[in-house]
Amino acid sequence: LEGHADVIMDDVGPAVIPTVDVIRARFDERRGGRSSLDRIIRRLLGLEAKMRQYSDGAVFVHGVVD
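^ that's the sequence the OP posted. Answer follows.
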């Protein structure tokens, strides 16, 4: 299920929510980490794997849709 909401937001969102591009940019920024220290802490806590689940899930959902 990870990534499904991202795909739906990106595919349906702009027609319904004009600011979806701003929302997407903020999600991507937050998921990417703000600094080297932030990325290290995420890796140590296993949060990097969680962020990867979103991108892997979106690839899967796109594959199913295609």
